[in-house]
Prior knowledge:
Chain A has strands at residues 3-5, 10-14, 19-21, 24-26, 31-38, 44-50, 56-58, 64-68, 73-78, 87-95, 103-104, 108-113. Chain A is mostly beta strands. Chain B has strands spanning 4-6, 10-13, 19-25, 31-38, 42-51, 54-57, 64-70, 73-78, 87-94, 104-105, 109-113.
Amino acid sequence: AQSVTQLDSQVPVFEEAPVELRCNYSSSVSVYLFWYVQYPNQGLQLLLKYLSGSTLVESINGFEAEFNKSQTSFHLRKPSVHISDTAEYFCAVSDTGTASKLTFGTGTRLQVTL
Amino acid sequence: DVKVTQSSRYLVKRTGEKVFLECVQDMDHENMFWYRQDPGLGLRLIYFSYDVKMKEKGDIPEGYSVSREKKERFSLILESASTNQTSMYLCASTDASGREETQYFGPGTRLLVL
């Protein structure tokens, strides 16, 4: 069984500042890792994912995350946030053997202000 | 574009009522999922289905059942609604090929049980 820890429930940040949302996971087997984003009053949508290959993955809107196997982490970063990045961010993990079934973290609410 | 629709955005029911939440996807996905989302708890898997008439319990199946008579439709049933089932319910789907491992979510149904 896997578990995901998102230690920060809320992260306030000023517009154009950098941000890091932390995610650590626990699993005894190989994993796939995901970040999903939920904008206000919407369902979740995939932001980025690590399945294999390069440990640094990027999204189309400037976010990136790095898979660190030794530290069992998959932190999400953006060098300069925008007001429109205000949302809740969920880290998720699935094991490569029973892929498609996700275990989610408790979420981090990113609040970007002017 | 993958589209996952849920029958209602908001629903108010009374304790003891039987409640049906419907989810339809238009991408011929084999796998479908029902989650509930609660503040501070993230998303928790209730049930999932990997084929028509097939279902498996997730992490919190108690008080719920599901039905999948057609590939595109996955229904969540609250046999006798209780106040502790007040929550946001999210449906998701994904294909079983293992190529992308992305879950596509519906907009959610916010259920209030009085």
